[in-house]
Structures are given as structure tokens and as C-alpha cells.
Design a protein that fits this description.
The complex is a heterodimer of chains A (about 550) and B (about 350). Chain A has a six-stranded mixed barrel with strand order 14-18-15-17-16-19. Chain A has 20 helices and 19 strands. Chain A has three domains: about 5-180, Dimethylsulfoxide Reductase, domain 2, CATH 3.40.228; about 185-225 and about 290-380, Rossmann fold; about 425-545, Barwin-like endoglucanases (Beta Barrel), CATH 2.40.40.20. Helices cover about 30% and strands about 15% of the residues of chain A. Chain A is an alpha/beta fold and about 550 residues long. Chain A is globular and about 70 Å long. Chain B is about 25% helix and about 20% strand. Chain B contains eight helices and 16 strands. In chain B, strands 2-1-4-3 form a four-stranded mixed beta sheet, with helices on one face. Chain B has a three-stranded antiparallel beta sheet with strand order 5-6-9, with no helix packed on it. In chain B, strand 15 (about 305-310), helix 8 (about 315-330) and strand 16 (about 335) form a beta-alpha-beta unit. The longest helix of chain B is centred in the first third of the chain and has 16 residues, at about 75-90. Chain B is elongated and about 85 Å long. The chains are: A alpha/beta (about 550), B alpha+beta (about 350). At the A-B interface, helix 2, helix 10, helix 12, strand 7 and strand 8 of A face strand 10, strand 11, helix 6, strand 13 and helix 7 of B. Bound molecules: iron/sulfur cluster (3 copies) and FE2/S2 (inorganic) cluster. The site of one iron/sulfur cluster (SF4) has 14 residues of chain B, from helix 4.
Chain lengths: ~550, ~350
Amino acid sequence: MTNPISDLERAGCILVIGSNTTVGHPIIALRIKKAVRQHGAKLIVANPKYIDLCEEADVWLQNRSGTDVALLNGIAWVILNEGLWDQAYVDERTEGFAEWRAAVEKYTPDVVQDITGVEPDTLRAAARLYARPPFGNSAIAYTLGITLHRTGTDNVFAVANLAMLTGNIGVEGGGVNPLRGHNNVQGACDMGCLPNVFTGYQPVANAEARAKFEAAWGAPLPEAPGLTESEIMAAVHEGRIRAMYIMGENPAVSDADANHVRQALENLDFLVVQDIFLSETAQMADVVLPGASFAEKDGTFTSTERRVQRVRQAIPPVGSSRADWQIVAEVASRTLEKLGRPVAGFAFSHPSEIMAEIATLTPSYGGISFERLESGGLHWPCPDAGHPGTPRLHIGRFTRGRGRFTPVRHIPPAEMPDAEYPLFLNTGRLLYHFHTGTLTRRVKGLTQIAPEARVEINPRDAERLEIAQGETVHVASRRGQVFVKAELTDRTPPGSVFMSFHFAEVLTNALTSPALDPVAKAPELKVCAVRVEKVEKEIANASSR
Amino acid sequence: MPTITVDGQGVEARPGQTVLQAALAANIYIPNLCYAEDLAPYGACRLCIVEIDGMRGLPAACSTIATEGMVVRTETPALMQARRMTMELLLSDHPDNCLVCRKNQRCELQRMAAYLGISERRLPRLERPTAFDESNPFFDRDLEKCILCGRCVRACDEVTQVNAIDYIYRGFATKIGAFLDQPLADSRCVSCGECLASCPTGALVEKSYYGLPDREVLTVCTYCGSGCSLYLQMRGDKIVGVRGDPANDASEGHLCVKGRFGYDFANHPDRLTAPLIRKNGALEPASWDEALDLVASKLAEHKGAFAGLASAKCTNEENYLLQKFTRAVMETNNIDHCARR
Ligand code: SF4
Ligand code: SF4
Ligand code: SF4
Ligand code: FES
């Protein structure tokens, strides 16, 4: 997030796109609702599905799945054509405007309606609210509904373009605010758990950065960026990767085209999984190392607002399990020994010592230490010990100098509904579960409220398909199939169905598309084409096929 | 900043602050029950009454804005007598089985009765129809213990903004309930537990109650990226409760259903407690030494054909170490995690 969570309450208008916030980020949703109800902020929701926040919204843009670029370009078109943009800001702080403007010209409200299904008047209303909030600035909040598309990177550019056009970056109550899904997905990125960067996004291809890390770690480091997760799975299939170490992840359930991923994992010579439960992925491992839950270790998490916070040990690791940092350090030391190399660089007696090393190598974490975190979290960048942290980014100027407008165009999802697979499948989360359910499905109360997987389907589609409430149906895509109970609801628009991926026994990701965003390499988990049928019908069809 | 005098002491109030807030901030205690820091004042319990020069009657401190020059007295014999009367009325239809109540020693009503020196029942005991609602999986409602302070209703309205519950019926029959008095489980309730956290009495209590915690540990929620900080309430090695951290300006002390109630997994019998090694096709328990040694020798063999997946659930320090290991030991940049999901 460019802005802190608390800033949402200072916004005059909030555009929530690709986020079912009350479900994915309940506490952030409270701030959004409070802004609307108690401070009179305007709310625009862009989502194909009728989500809880629609109840509070001034404008609901029900655009078709996979049409966010067109929608956002359309909003920009209206703002440009009605002269609602912030010319002074654009002149002073940005670049690439003319070229971008030319690209947006095509996205007239009529064209946008054709692509997205959103009425021109609704589009105009949203544009006016966003560009001219009743007070203060306008914020945008988004999540995986924006990024998990073939055009995920373009979607993010489209969001940023709109915010720059209206002078909403680097201001209180404004900003471009991706809401990160996991407790520490931000931190994992910050820590360089990405194939192309070290900690703090220092590129591995940059010789200076590499030299710094080589000196600190006392080892030569590879220059070529590595593979992303989906590329790794492909490389396993091709035999280029023979061993994997998976810490606290469950790709056998969470990844797109999960059956393909399972085959890959089976192909490995050696798979180590470190987890607190015997997840579906751990069941495939050669060695399983028992890690510790968040309550059993010290450390830090970095939240979606770039706030580094202390995680504190409350209980010892259960049984003979160990804190994950201890396990990794031990594996590293022993592997060095086997390789006949000097055993160094992994002897830590407490996570605070690891953070001290991180701080010396990572400019944005330079001022962060366990000692300082005792008195509360710190927002990075926090370059030195006297720095108070940076809740708002890009104040006065962009971190990179000038903000760059990036022209983006509408590209339809890789897989569109057709005669054989006539429905869109949208995937996401439920309030009562988390990710692949390894944790929440072991919480009795949560499973009581949400005991099993459902496919949400609009009653109109259900009627046509003769599907009744609660009936088990067959859902198939080009990649896989599942049997799941139907839930008839108006919240899901006709032509689309929705499933969560919390229930491993109903492997939603057996259906999803492995199509990748060419830049971020994120899979298009949010849209693919499926067929939903009564079970009898599927059996009849199968026997005649 | 208006300055007021409370019991002879000068107190600075922030503009718009109530007399109660200003006094509490200056460490001058005024009894109160229906007031909660994060909720709008309501003026229902009448325990916070004070005397203010120039004002008639006994105004409620929680709903009187502090204005320049106000002279306030918080503990006169008249006030104490009126408060005791109010408390006796509140207790007249309240069961007195504190010893076996799940709120015992955490109950504000109990504390307030003690503060006011209540030592006997002088009013005839009124029986309220008991109204249990045990439909929610995390907490129970026992309206016999409800004092109608409205904190739960305000929490559900002002904090959660779900408005699942409200006052229903009228007069003596007034109670707290969901729309059409349906069970909470069938209402709009999202089980966030904000009402539970705000309830001063035993009317709303956790289902799984183990007794008072012996300590609290401040940490961060393990679920989504909002970063709500919370106190784990511990008893030995068991997490027996969770409390939001009001000092966190992102979450302001609030939590969602997962953050507040989602911790059974930590002590779950399915937890892995020893390393496992695949032998003849099956995963079998092994010693750490054996497992680590096997991992190290196998990984050493596969240097160059290796990839690591880090975890969005693990700490920064752990993720840092895994990428350091991947790059510096395994000599590859094949390190990623589920940022893309
Ligand atoms: S649990 Fe939350 S939603 Fe349910 S009644 Fe209480 S405050 Fe309202
Ligand atoms: S249930 Fe608790 S919080 Fe709600 S009105 Fe009754 S006593 Fe007050
Ligand atoms: S309490 Fe809920 S909103 Fe807060 S971090 Fe945890 S899961 Fe997210
Ligand atoms: S606290 Fe003031 S009336 Fe209850």
C-alpha cells in the first residue's frame, strides 16, 4: 500500500476494485465502511459479483470478469473528457502522459460498455466521484481480483494511471493500495523470496548489489534471475529441476492447474516440505520437517501497509518440532558441510540477529531492529536507526523521480466461455477459511459455519441447468473436474460461477487456468471457462462419449 | 482546549471530549458501565452521574461535553447514594451466581457492584425469562445476565457495521436480539466477536472457557495481510483467548472471526511433532539428526537443479534465511513464494 490502512478513513472517495474486502481483509473493510457511514466518503465498488460492500456503495460497476483494464481506461477517458484531471500534478510529477492519453482515447463509454457491460452513465458517475470527491482525496484499494489475471500487471498499471491522473498518489487519504492476502506475503517479497531480487528489491542482475551480497555472505552468487513458481513447476516436468525445498506452502492445492503441479512434484528426485501439518504437498515429500506455528517463535511479519511488526513466542514448539528459522539454518549449515565448504553464515541464536543482518543489507529495513519494534511497528522504508518510518510513500515526489503513465489495452482472458465450457469460473476466498484450509479447517467453529465447498451459481443458470439448492453437481474445465454442492445465489451474476479453494477434497484448482501474466508470471486464477451439469447428465454424457 | 475542574483538580479536556473521558484521562475514576472507549456515548446505565455547578440534576458524565470552566464533583454522598440505588436496580433482575459464571473476575458489573460497596439485596428479585442463544459456534448469549447497556448493539453497529443485533420488544420485555428474534447463527452475524469483546457482563461469553489466563503475549495475527496485532491469552501452553490490541492504529483493537477465534489449530492433534522420512513408500517418524542429514546430503547432490519455495506465512527472518540458503549455498536464484496467489 502506498498509504497506511488508517488513511482509508481520511479518503473522500474510495474505489474498491477486485477485492471482496469484508471477506479477504475484514478489518480493512471496517475502515472503508466507517469512512462511508461515519465520515460521508463516497464508495465505488467494481466487481462482477455483488459483494457485501455493494450495500454501502454509491456506484457499483458490475464489469464482466477480466475487463478491468477497459473499465479503468474508461473511467480515465471520462475524467479526461470532462476536464476533471489534475493538470498541475500531471505536469509536475509525471511523465509519459501524452502517449498514454492517446492510448486511452479509444475507450469511450460506448466501447467500454461493449467490453465490460457497464452502462455509460454508471461509468460517468464513478469517474466524477473518483475525480471530484466531496472532500479530501480518493483512494484505490485492490487485491488479487486485479493481479490474478493474464493482464494482472496491466491492471495494476491502469490503477496507477488513474491515481496519477487525478493527483492521488503521495497524498493523505489517497493512494494505490494493494491489500496483500497473507500475513507476511509483503515480508516474503521484501526478503527477496523472488527469483529476480535480493532483499528490498535489489536486482540480482545488478553487479553492485551482487557484490555487496557476495561480500556479506562470503559466496559467489548467480547472476541470472531464477524461475518463478509456475516456471519452476514447468522445469520440474522437463527434468531441469530435480530437488525442491518447500517451506509452509501447499502448491498441490493452491496452484492453478493443480493436477499438473502434483505430477511435477511426483517427478522430483527429492522433495523436502517443512510445515506444521501434513498438508497435501507434505504427503508427497521424501522428508517432512515439522516447523512451528506463529505462536511458537519470535520474528517479524510485514503487513500490507509495509508495517514491520514483532511476532512473539507464546509457547514452545509442540513435540519435537522446531522454529522454522532454526531448521533452515541447520539444513544450510549441514549442506555446506556436505559440499565441503566452510560452514558459516547460518549460526544464529535468535531471530533478532537475523534481522540485524537483514538491516545491514537492505536499505529500506536499515533502521529496523527488534529493539525498536518493542515500542510498536515501523513502516518501511526506514533507512536508519533514527528514522521514524514511512507510512505514506511518494510524498512530494515519486520514489523513482517522476511517476510514469503506462499505456495499457484490453486483452480478453486467455480462456473465454464457449459452447463446450459456457460459464466463467471465478475463484476466491470465504470469510471463514484461509487459503488451502490447513489452519482454519482445524478450527471447529469455523468448519461448523463453513463445513464444505460450494459452487455459487446464479438461480437463472441453475434453473436452466435444472440444478436445485444444495444439489451435488459436476463442474469441469479443460483441465479437470470436481463434484461439489451448488449454492444458488443472486450475488454471482448469470453466466458466472464462483468457488473458493479452501477445500482440498474439492480441488478447485484442478479447474483453473495456468495462463500467465507475461510480466508478473501470476496465473489467471480469477477466470477460466467451465461447464456445470447435473451429475446424472454428466454420467449419461460420459457413457456416450 | 477547555479546562475543567474535577474534584478540585484542574483537568485539560480535548475539544469535544466528554467529562467522563477527560476525567478518566486525568486518572480520576468515575464509575461507568455502558461507556466503552471505542463506542459513541449512550447514557444508559446512569452510573457515571456527576454534579456540575450550574447544571440541574445529576448529568451523566459520559454524555456531557466538557466546556471551559466547568466545575465537576464525582463523589458526593448524594451521588454515591444515587449510584448505589441504580446498581441495586440493575442487580434486581440479575442472577447472583457469580461463582459459576464464565465472566467471574472479568465482569464489569461485578467490579462495579464491589466498587459501589453493594453488600446485600434490598430489592425483591425480579425473574427475567432466561433466553439462551447457543447457535453461534464461538460464543453464547444468556440474556438473563444482560443489563441492556447496548454495548454489543453499538459494537455491531459502529465497529463491525453489520447491524446483526438490536434492542427488540418493549418495556420489561426489551432484550437484545437479531432481526425477528431469530438465532444469531441464522442472522447477518459474521461471528467477529466484537459484541462479545464489548459486553461488560456474563450475558455474552466464549463457548470454550478454560478459566482466567495466566499471561498475555502481544503478537500479530497469522491470517491475512491486514496485520492486526493481538494479545494471545495464555494458560500454560494453551491459547485460551485472544484480545485485540487497541494500540495498533490499523486495527484499533478490533479483530475478525479468524483473528479472534481461529487458533485451535496451534494445539491440534494433527500437528507434526517429529520429522518424517519416506521409507518403502510411506512417511515414517525419524530423528532430527537423521532427517537433517538426509536432506543435506540430497540437496548437496542436487545443487544446480534446485528450487525453493518460501512462505507467506513464515516470518521475515525465516524467509530471509531460505533465500540466502538458496542463493549462497544452492547457487541458484530459483526462489519464489505464493505472492502470486
Ligand atoms: S459477532 Fe460481530 S456481527 Fe455477530 S452480533 Fe457480534 S458484533 Fe455483530
Ligand atoms: S448483551 Fe452484554 S453488551 Fe449487550 S446489552 Fe446485554 S450486557 Fe450489554
Ligand atoms: S484479525 Fe482478521 S483482518 Fe486482522 S489480520 Fe487477522 S485475519 Fe486479517
Ligand atoms: S457510562 Fe454514562 S450512563 Fe453508562
